[in-house]
């Protein structure tokens, strides 16, 4: 009897796995065609100077505009793109688009620094440097306006090779950010040896700024960054209290729905035009963005 049950169980799981496999194969095929069908688009989320609240740049965030499912989150399809190898093509597309856009804005007189996320496979792919080099030499954009983001966990997964790749990229003059900082395990010794410019405090700590623990973590990250002479960006700002807290702690740059959600390039330009021109620190963002 037990044997039969085991057998049934096996059949049950097997057909369920089969369904999951088919589903993911369908997604994979659709993702494979997504670039050709122009369903992949780059959105831009504003970043502002923490003291003046003036725009200083944006983060490029990829979107898959699926005809049936609507906007698919990168949290869903980036892992699929990673596991199938499609990430190289998609990642290169995002880099190309973002660099083109940064240059267009630069020519219009906007010195906006644009953050571009690199996934694990993209970061370790052998022709990443060549790709970046080609993009930079195709125009006279100051390369520090391109900010390549890798996550803390990726950076630390193989610190020796990370240092090697980052040194190569840094030699081209691009900026380097460590994303989702605080969610992985960093060795300070390695962090110090990487040629990085910026660390991005993960959103989860910003969300917890109303707790003592959250404040302690944010204070520690900012103090550490300052002592290593790194710039700090706080992600996921949604509340005025979070702005006030981080301003007082001399965080450098803020990013979050409070200032703007990720949006298509044309909408971002509209957002730029709507920003009041101010030179001194003010608290007026609360009125302006709500
Ligand atoms: P990330 O690089 O940490 O990007 C920040 C994420 O936080 C974005 O989610 C953004 O929409 C979200 N966010 C920003 N401000 C707020 C806020 O105030 N509240 C809340 N609740 N969320 C906020 P998104 O666009 O869904 O991207 C998720 C992740 O997918 C990114 O995390 C990044 O790891 C990855 N990703 C996005 N675009 C790309 C890409 O072009 N290439 C690669 N390799 N990964 C990407
Ligand atoms: Mg950045
Ligand atoms: Mg990022
Ligand atoms: Mg992040």
Structure description:
36% of the residues are buried. The chain is of the alpha/beta class and 290 residues long. The chain has helices at 2-34, 74-84, 87-107, 120-124, 128-137, 152-157, 159-171, 188-193, 203-207, 212-227, 240-248, 265-274, 285-289, and strands at 40-49, 55-66, 70-72, 113-117, 146-151, 175-181, 198-201, 231-234, 253-255, 263-264. Helix 1 (2-34) crosses helix 2 and helix 3 (87-107) packs parallel to helix 5. Strand 6 (175-181), helix 8 and strand 7 (198-201) form a beta-alpha-beta unit. It is built from 13 helices and 10 strands. It starts with a helix and ends with a helix. It has an 8-stranded mixed beta barrel, surrounded by 4 helices. The chain is 52% helix and 19% strand. The chain binds ligand C2E and magnesium ion (MG) (3 copies). Ligand C2E is lined by residues 45, 61-62, 73-75, 78, 91, 94, 117-119, 179-180, 203, 235-238, 255-257, 262.
